Amino acid sequence: MKPEPDPLSKEAPAEHAGRNFWTLGLVQITIRTGWIFKTESIIMPVVLDTMGGAAWLRGFLPMFSRAAYSVSPWLLSHRFNQLKQKKWGLCTTICGMSVCFGILSIFWMIAGGQAATWMPIVFLAVYASFFVCAGMTQLGFGTLQGKLVRATRRGRLMLLGNVGGAAVAIVGAAVLLPSWLHSGGGDFHWIFACSAFFFLVSALIASRLVEPIDKTQQQPQEGVFHFSESWNILSEDIAFQRVAWVAFFFGTSFVLFPHYQALGHARFEFEFSDLIYWVILQNAGTAVFSLVAGLLADWRGNRLVLRLLLLGLCLLPPAALALASFEQFGKSNYWGVFVLIGLSPITLRTLQNYTLELAPANNYPRYLSTLGLCVAAPMMTAPLVGLAIDYWSFEEVFFGVTVLLFAGWLQTLRLSEPRQKASAEVITGRLNVES
């Protein structure tokens, strides 16, 4: 009798493992390169401000983006799971991302950058559509990662995508953005077109994955079954229930994303050209943090990495407020805020990798989409957060989010370590075989 396979490997086949690892890494790199030209914490809020948006209107950016990003995978995860080869679903959704930014580029050229009352509505509608595609892309990537990459190599895949992606993205931003972001304003149509181009390249790369065909297919479930199945996961899987609370509190960090650049502009009156350095430094921060987090996750597990990342994010709002309180020192060092924001994408990916280790191999999409809902839930309050900043000040709102992030860090202390259980199962299986 043969021993059971290592549970850490789940479905990951040995054949074509190297090719798939590098292909998925290149998919991440090209998506990240396109993403730098639409940075949620810097570029997109500035675009909305250019249209005359107030803080409450900026609040719709995280609400629309994260709601679309999380609800679409939740509603469509069964459809995605039915695909015999998930890579074609991934290619389709990345192409959708490219189309959305192609539309935004045309929209900005037609509008000529002139503010009008209808512009924020159209902009937010296309932006939400983009995140529907981005959410499905994240679901597809996570599912393929779980299917094709061993658990003990996923940290290195995250490292490759974030470090390699940041390096390429930073070079691209440094070369191209100075021509498009200047003291007089921004040529956003070129920025949007550049994002569309890199997303299209990423879709072409994803088509080169070597993926075995799934033989067993689940029947699609509609309507209330989506809620029922997610509720069953949350109520019955205690280990996932704990990480869901971590995800919920982590999600509160996104409501402040559009307001960090607004705080800096309000206190220091930065120019458009300053945004280039913020974008570059944010991506550099992601690269540096990924280098440590990826290797540490493969070595010691994702639980420890989550604890460290959440602790770093707890420092972000108070650091922004502290720097904004000092005129000269704060203006010279406000870039540090955007370096810390670089922790967010790594935290999200680490949450997903942790969830992949908890989830049954045939139910990755449902677990990942339920996790996404937990992250997105706090974003429904984002317009109210913006309204609170309009009526009160940055200080009260930033302090409140800091408290919630600290509560999330406390929840990480309750997390179990899936690899300890997996290792115990392997040892037990081997002992049974030997006996």
Fold and architecture overview:
The protein has 435 residues and is mainly alpha-helical. The chain has one domain (13-210, 223-421): MFS general substrate transporter like domains (Growth Hormone, Chain: A, Up-down Bundle). Helix content is 77%, strand content 1%. The chain is built from 21 helices and two strands. A two-stranded antiparallel ribbon has the order 1-2. A hairpin with a 2-residue loop joins strand 1 and strand 2. Helix 1 (17-36) runs antiparallel to helix 8, helix 4 (60-82) packs antiparallel against helix 18 and helix 14 (316-324) packs antiparallel against helix 16 (335-341). Residues 1-11 and 423-435 have low confidence and may be disordered.
Share in helix: over 70%
Largest sheet: 2 strands, antiparallel
Write out the CATH superfamily name. MFS general substrate transporter like domains
What is the rounded distance between the termini? 11 Å
How many domains? The number is 1
Range of strand content: under 5%
Average of per-residue pLDDT values: 82
**Structure annotation, total helices:** 21
Radius of gyration: 21 Å
The overall strand count is 2
CATH class: Mainly Alpha
Structural class label:
mainly alpha
